[in-house]
Amino acid sequence: MTTNEQPIVNRVAQSNALRLVDLEEYYPTMPLAGFDLQPYLFAGMILKEKDFREALKTIDWTQYDGKAVFIHCSADTIIPVWAYMLVSGYLKDHAVYAMLGNEQALVERLMVDNVKSIDIEQLRGKKVLVKGCSDKPVPHGLYVELARMLLPVVNSLMYGEACSNVPIVKSGKMS
User: Fold this and answer.
1) In this structure, which long-range contacts are made by residues 137-140, counting pairs with CB atoms below 8 Å and at least 24 apart in sequence?
2) Where are the domains of the chain?
3) Radius of gyration from C-alpha coordinates of the chain
4) Burial of 98 (0-12, 13-18, 19+ CB in 10 A)
5) pLDDT tens readout for residues 52-108
6) How many CB atoms neighbour CB 23 within 10 A?
7) Neighbouring C-alpha atoms within 13 Å toward the C-beta of 152
8) What is the DSSP letter of 120?
9) Region of residue 36 (phi > 0: left; psi between -120 and 50: alpha; otherwise: beta)
């Protein structure tokens, strides 16, 4: 570089007026686990209450200590609601969090809970850029939740990167 050349500086990205929200930072840090009811069904398809209750008593529930657990049934069968509630009862003293669904739904729920911890007052009246690229998959529903939270308070909301973004709201008005 000669003495007349200056390095290219992305002033938008360095601007203190622009706040960046990177949803990847809200990824759950606790380990995740699944609890499948299928192995505890008669012939892999039928829930017999007495047998199911006895089987649950034999499980080492400590394997779920400190984990977020998604409860599901991999068999295509009808499971009574109380069965999920019963499993939840066994998990209550071990799992940090438990819900009915799949791993993707669990990640989304935990991320939404994490995003709700954002102090949106610090973003009031600011220009906010929601980062578009990440190394981990960010559930689409999380972007909707973040927009729901931010739209009433931010001056501008954009999606993407500082050098190339899509405006959602500009000066408090839909773009």
Assistant:
1) 138/23, 138/24, 138/111, 139/104, 139/107, 139/108, 139/111
2) 11-27+121-174, 32-95
3) 23
4) buried
5) 999 999 999 999 999 999 999 999 999 999 999 999 999 999 999 999 999 999 999
6) 20
7) 5
8) G
9) beta
